[in-house]
Amino acid sequence: SFEYQLKPRKDVNAVLVNSAAKALEEVRRYPNAYAAIVLDFHFDSEGVNGAQLVEKIKEVNESLQVIICTG
């Protein structure tokens, strides 16, 4: 899994969540804490996709950089 592929670095802090709802909750809780968010496009079990999540994130912090990937 991606979580296990992240290697700890002293200059980068990563916050890992396992759902769109948790990601949005984190952004709402700490709207200016992140330099960028990397997320998957598919959240099939949640009825939301990455593009929809980006819209919600941008409502909280429109300057936050978001990278959508899928595979």
Mean pLDDT value = 85
Shape: globular
Taking pLDDT < 50 over at least 5 consecutive residues as the criterion, the unreliable ranges are: none
- Structural class by sheet pairing and helices: alpha+beta
How do the strands of the widest beta sheet line up side by side?
Answer: 1-4
| Helix coverage percent | 25-40%
Main sheet? 2 strands, parallel
The string of secondary-structure elements, in order, is HHEEEHE
Report how far apart the termini are: 12 Å
- Tally of helical segments: 3
| DSSP summary, beta strand count | 4
Cα-atom Rg, whole angstroms? 12 Å
Strand content: 15-25%
What does this structure look like?
The structure is a single chain. With 71 residues, this protein is of the alpha+beta class. The chain has three helices and four strands; from the N terminus they run H-H-E-E-E-H-E. The strands form two sheets. The protein has a two-stranded parallel ribbon. A hairpin with a 4-residue loop joins strand 2 and strand 3. The longest helix is centred in the last third of the chain and has 11 residues. The chain is globular, with a radius of gyration of 12 Å. It starts with a helix and ends with a strand. The model has no long low-confidence stretch (mean pLDDT 85).
Short description:
The protein is of the alpha+beta class and 71 residues long. 35% of the residues lie in helices and 20% in strands.
Topology:
Blueprint (H helix, E strand, L loop, with lengths): L1 H4 L14 H10 L6 E5 L1 E2 L4 E2 H11 L4 E5 L2
Parallel strand pairs: 1-4
Antiparallel strand pairs: 2-3
